[in-house]
């Protein structure tokens, strides 16, 4: 007499679990890349907002920007100077920040004629840079002074 067994064998269960694990791993890899890209897009948008704040600030001060010449400063430290009620922070703060440097004759005064702002991009491992002369783009290294490093 034949006995009928209902259910799955151990081998069948292991194969299904392995396939599910592989698919989950592939999904996580693509999801991580998508998250980095989304944070980079947010960074670019935030830097454009800062550029607008700086241009608005300069429009009421004879075209002059805040001077920060000793070293690059984080952009959120300029919120009060720019008259902003709230400034965006990097999506991965405090790991990454937005930075600002300008020319001028002293910090903190408002006599700079140019600035450079930038942020590190996770997905491309480059820096997204916005210059006061209207150039925007990426570079392999962070700016070291107020001169726009973009061609």
Automatic annotation (TrEMBL):
GO cellular component labels: membrane
Bilayer topology term: Single-pass membrane protein
Transmembrane residue ranges: 6-29
Annotated localization: Membrane
Pfam families the record matches: N_methyl
Keywords from the UniProt entry: Membrane, Methylation, Transmembrane, Transmembrane helix
Protein name: Type II secretion system protein GspG C-terminal domain-containing protein
Organism whose genome encodes this protein: Candidatus Woesebacteria bacterium GWA1_42_12
Lineage: Bacteria, Candidatus Woeseibacteriota
């Amino acid at each position: 007499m034949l006995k009928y067994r209902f259910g799955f064998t151990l081998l069948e269960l292991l194969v299904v679990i392995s396939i599910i694990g592989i698919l989950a791993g592939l999904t996580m890899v693509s999801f991580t890349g998508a998250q980095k890209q989304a944070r980079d897009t947010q960074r670019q948008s935030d830097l454009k907002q800062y550029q607008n704040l700086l241009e608005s600030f300069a429009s009421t001060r004879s075209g002059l920007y805040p001077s920060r010449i000793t070293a690059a400063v984080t952009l959120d430290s300029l919120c009060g100077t720019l008259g902003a009620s709230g400034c965006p922070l990097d999506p991965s703060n405090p790991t990454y920040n937005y930075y600002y440097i300008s020319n001028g004759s002293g910090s903190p005064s408002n006599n700079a004629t140019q600035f450079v702002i930038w942020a590190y991009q996770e997905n491309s491992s480059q820096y997204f840079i916005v210059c006061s002369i209207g150039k925007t783009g990426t570079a392999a290294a962070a700016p070291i002074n107020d001169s726009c490093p973009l061609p």
